[in-house]
What does this fold into?
Amino acid sequence: MQTKTAIPLEDQDVSDLCVLVVEDDEIMRLSLEDRLRLEQIPARAVGDLAGAHKQLETGEIDLVVTDIRLPDGSGADLFEDIYRHYPGTPVILMTAFGDVSDAVALVKAGAVDYLTKPFDVDAFVGTVRRNLARCADMRLNADYLGVHGETFRPGSGVVGKSPAMRRIERLIARLSKVNSNVLITGESGVGKEVIATLIHFNSDQASGPLIKVNCAALPANLIESELFGHEKGAFTGATYRRIGRFEQAQNGTIFLDEIAETSLEVQVKLLRVLQERVLERVGGEQSIPLDVRVIAATQIDLDEAVKNGTFRSDLYWRLNVIHVEIPPLRRRPEDILYLARLFVKQHASEMDRSVKGLSGEVEAKLLAMSFPGNVRELKNILERAVALCDGTRIMAHDLALLEQLPDGAREAEKMTTLKDSVAAAECQAIQQALQHNDWVIGKAAADLDISRKSLWEKMKRYGIERQREPQSPD
It folds into this structure.
């Protein structure tokens, strides 16, 4: 793993990190926003919780500075929402002298700092810059993704360009110095194992083992022995001592995929391991101390499983210390072409093929798909396409998308939202307009009835770029 040279916090470049100021006093709000911009710190400012939520949804906010008292709620409400839905985003509180106790309580709960009004603006800028610099000092190591020796600033798009995936990158970086349990949820194929691996390799446990366990693939009568090990003679056929997966993960990370598939009996024993950080092998009496980070994943709605009595609520809350929810690919169209190009490059390298990219027609087809199998489906489709491609660029006949999908797989497994459908349709329309106008931006913008600037911004958002054919040798 590559190590990075430490840069003093005061020298960190924070010009590409964004601050959200939440303050109902208009004069103060504009004053703080203007001062931050004068300091070359990107800033946005809103006057209430509703505006703050809209800004957070963009996925572009790296630090929040909020007043304790707001017209439609409080800074405490905002902090709780960030803690639940945007974990890892640092929060600084601004408070009047009489509310200092509330600010102190929130700092104890996880806010990074507070300022008492009236405060010196230079002190405000210093506090913001110092906490932004900590964000800028974070890096994600992506060696295991095949990008050897590379580190990336969180939000740069290691696993995707969409706001949702950039938020997840930022969270992963902020988890690097803590050993909290993590629960990853999302549909099959969204990349839960990839995120678990990224968490491990960007943590203090990175030098230790990463043990992956698919709980659904283990026979019910063997899962306890697989997880916790057994002593010789513990049961019929136990002819030797077995070291279980938890012990194998000592000083590292254990990834429990499909955790909802475990029986209630096994869940009880998992709970004891998480609570006491010790285990006993099956048939053994010795308590073995554990230093293991637990990352669990499931595609099942655990809230419903708890209500139905198939999953223990106490285990759920032990696992759900940090929650990472990965949205399906159909809800993040910005990632489709980004990941498609990445997979083409990877598959071409593995197969030693000369395939360089995707034709515009293929990109439009991919953007129009619902991908019920999510990222795994996209990757498999492109692996097949690279294998079948006779040229340097994948064409529609190489893809054969719909013909090879089984009946019923042409429809998404879940309904998409109106926002998701609009984004996918917009992305496809932009692709078609650009191709029709031979990628002349002005003409494409005119056809779409939008400005050139709007078209550029949308192309950047969706990762749309012209894939040029390689020049033939003379």
